[in-house]
Sequence to fold (1019 residues):
Amino acid sequence: MPVYNAPLLQVDPKETRRYAGLMKAEGFDEEKIENACQDARLLASPRGIWQIYDYNCDRQEVCADPPFIIQGKKIGAHLAGCDKVILLSATVGEEIEETVTRLFAEGEYTASVLLDAAATTAVEQIADDMEKVIRPKAAAQGYGMRWRFSPGYGDWPIDQQPELIRLAKAGEIGVSLSSSMMLIPRKSITAIIGLYKEGTRKEQAVHAKGCAACSKLDCPSRVIRP
Amino acid sequence: MIHIFDGAMGTMLQAGGLKPGACPELMNLKHPDVVKGIHRAYIDAGSTIIETNTFGASSLKLAHYGLQDRMAEINAAAVKIAREAADGRAKVAGSIGPTGRFVFPLGDLDFEEAYQCFFDQARALAEAGANYLLFETCIDIQEMRAAVLAAKDAAPDIPIICQLSYSEDGRTVTGTDPRSAAIILEALGADIIGVNCSLGPEQLVPIVRTLAQNCSVPVSVQPNAGMPHLDENGETVFPMDAASFGSWAPKLLEAGATWLGGCCGTTPEHIRAMAEALKGCSEPARQPRQPKLWLASRSKSVCVDRSLPTVLIGERINPTGRKKLAAEIRDGSLLSVKKEAVNQVKAGAALLDVNMGVGGIDQAAAMKKAVSEIAQLTDAPLVIDTSDAKALEAGLRAYPGRALINSVSAEDARIAEFLPLARKYGAAILCLPITEDGVPKTAEARLDAVRFIIQSAKKQGLRDGDFLLDALVMTVSADVHACQEVLRTLQLYRRELGYPSTMGLSNISFGLPNRPLINSTFFAMSLACGLDAPIMNPYDESMQRALKASAALLGHDPNGLAFSKDEANLSVPKKAAVAKTSDLDPLSAIKQAVIEGEKDEIVGLVEKALREGFDSNEITEKALTAAMTDIGEDFGSGRMFLPQVLLSAETMRAAFNRLKELIPASAKADKGTVVIATVKGDVHDLGKNITGALLANSGFRLIDLGKDVDAAEIVKAAMENKADIVGLCALMTTTMVQIDKVIEQLKEAGCPAKVMVGGAAVTQDYADHAGADAYASDGVKAVKLAKDMLGIR
Fold:
């Protein structure tokens, strides 16, 4: 069931605030953020695709044909104990990005930056919704899901992107790579999710998740935990 | 009567020799004795209805094993085995699982392909003698709709059982809640509505209850034996034992399910425990359901009823009289349609009317596309507004919900063409009192026309919850009784028929001055006479205010609480900052407006300052540049954030532009020349654009080369423009190395410009290493560094 284009019934304004670096800003016009979220919904063409593979964690090998050896210690540790992996890709399409560029060129700097942040929120939501669809399927087979991990997190080199594109079959939803390993459209995601046997080994808590795992401490979008 | 289903099939097949990775349904041909043994075990345990081993025997699923050509054979064998095993002791339900793919636009499976797949399997099961068709474990209401439509066509006489799977949040993973599912599926003609799999019995109790409260057909439930995990051998284990499982059966029965069984992890022992626990239990008394008008989208249901607040039907998705919208629809663009959908819901519309009536286009194709795209974007149920039967069917088929048809008149053609479609797709109808002779003048004649429509509809199988009555508004300037007759019609409808009412309002005031006043007054009168669901422009403020006041007066807004709150909000001035700037001297006011990002104020303030004798230089230096300096400090110290800085930059730009228009010599970019670019291979340019905008608004001459720019081109531009500074941006580790290359080539060319670098992956260390003169962590910093490098203040 690999294609799932999640509806965007809303784009979360709180996350958009965060991606716009406005978490600590006071008195910023909420309507501007809401407008950006709404425009993102109108301009987005949500697409998502995933494939499931067997995984050998000793060799960090995704058992595809041809197989894919994952480089990077952190991702290796993150997938330890998993015997299947899901390769997924999601995108909001090109139109939103064209509008971000056009708005900026027209001098609508703020609207442009906010729409860019809303697009980031939207593509993350699409991937979250895909996980929501995948989770019960995995659970029905007794599997739990690790959180999704993308090239560029930790020490996973982004020059492994072509393999993720290949294995997720991202081309089918119009996601590709530039020569410098950038996702096209820009607001796209490729990621891997490890499936582990529920009950035999719990999700490992040793590795920090999300923002806590990132070394960019001065990031304006960093989630601050109490 | 209480019916007991069987339990899991897959695990029993494995125990009977099914190899991992093999096709379970092929067992029907290869090992019929094993399958028959499982059926018998369940019947012996107490099952009164057993499921054929055909969950994955659709052509789409069998294709995974290359067995699609044997679909009919496998299904026929399965029914034969089940019937032999039952031998009159149990009924046989033909099990049909999901296709494994999502139906477009949620996924890549075409609705018609899904329909065909279900049709073929349903027919194979029916022809072989199944007593029921059971669609189960479905997670997408649109796929279930395809299944029901297919089953009705393939086997019209066999009852259909529809079971969706819900997650812990009480919705299917694609967002459908049990109430919406019950409304959609009952209207579509499901004979039994239920839930199976994914959760244990405890979590299914509330879902069963909601289903039972929202439909009048029997409810079924088949829980898993708890939530599974894998054991050391990699086997899936469901933790709930037979006794605990059985103990939940009376609770599920009490919640409203009379068809009960098990799903994953259940065995004949679980079913035996269930059957034992239900012995002596009596069927729960279901509350007779009030036939109310319910409409539903994939994830939300809306009720139109006199006991509930007024339901607004947004009328704006309609190209009639709107040239621009019509042209867009003709060109195949739906952007404005989508905007209208989202904005109307924001403005309070609970239902959205969709009319694609543009001449010279394929109405059916346009309606199908509009309906599927709007349904992906908003959860307000839709009203399909067309006079074209083909477009109506296309819209109804594509809609993953229960829609309202706008409209069915008492004219022969409409009755003949539209009513069967309403029945087939489970849609409600808006009854329009127009006869072959035109619009009846009196309320009594309209009542007669509507009665005729309802009688005809009931003959087709429509029921009491399927009607919304239009009172039909005529123009008061043409007919002095128009308003009176409409109000009387509303009262008559309510008194004589009791169904909810609707109408388009604005026609009443045609040809009169101050139409908003007439419309809102008429609206208030209509609400008092029983109007339930006006079709209107939800952006119209006078109508919205009349509605809020009427709600307070008619008791829909107890004690006028919402009304009072609204009024209080309206009296607050929009922005405190507006008042602030007016108290200040002109230069401080400009500075303040820039800092606050008051883009709409700034031009007026600049003009005022010029009128009061300040020259452009003073305005630039003491107000605009001074503001930017403060902003830079606030940003640096974390008191201000990037989008706020950009708002200030926009404000500043508006000020500069106005100055330039009034005094062309002013606002010259004389601080120095900056050439900026995102390096070769990198397509991220928002950060670079931000930096460019801030530099340009700080008096620098900016030459922006764009993104993905070759080193040679950057060097050439720097030399030709006698750049003082070259700004390079790279976002990623893979493109960062281009910075080194550009710097090297600039040096080779003897370019005297300073080099400033930045971008997400770039660091001070990297900048130093590459031989850059400065590293800017953000656009504000870049402006400061540029000034420092060129020795400006």
